[in-house]
Design brief:
By secondary structure, the chain is mainly alpha-helical. The chain has one domain. Helix content is 71%, strand content 0%. The chain is built from one helix and no strands. The longest helix has 72 residues. It starts with 29 loop residues before the first helix and ends with a helix.
């Protein structure tokens, strides 16, 4: 549709092994390791959702702008055009009658 938006890309992988996390995993509890692993799994989904939300936000703003423009056309331009069409139709009708009776 010609709408420009920024493509947000999250470079992963977000799930790391305990050795890659930068601390002594032998000194922590298994619950902490499980929580960290769960967080890393959720992080990828959250970032993907954030990219989608960004596109939807831009699309929503564009829809609001287009709706505003349509409203202006309906309320200001369209009545003026209808009036001009009516005037032209009357003028053509008068010319037709003059040509018919002249």
């Amino acid at each position: 549709m010609g709408l420009r938006y920024r493509e947000l890309v999250a470079y992963g992988p977000f799930e790391r092994s305990p050795a890659e996390r930068g601390y002594d995993y032998t000194a922590t509890t298994p619950h902490l390791e499980e929580a960290i692993h769960g967080f890393e799994k959720v992080l990828a989904s959250v970032l993907e959702g954030a990219a989608f939300e960004s596109r939807l936000k831009v699309l929503g703003e564009e829809i609001v702008g287009v709706t505003r423009r349509i409203r202006v056309l309906e309320e200001r331009v369209l009545p003026r055009l209808r009036s001009q069409v009516r005037t032209i139709a009357q003028y053509l009708g008068e010319r037709d009658r003059e040509a018919h009776y002249a």
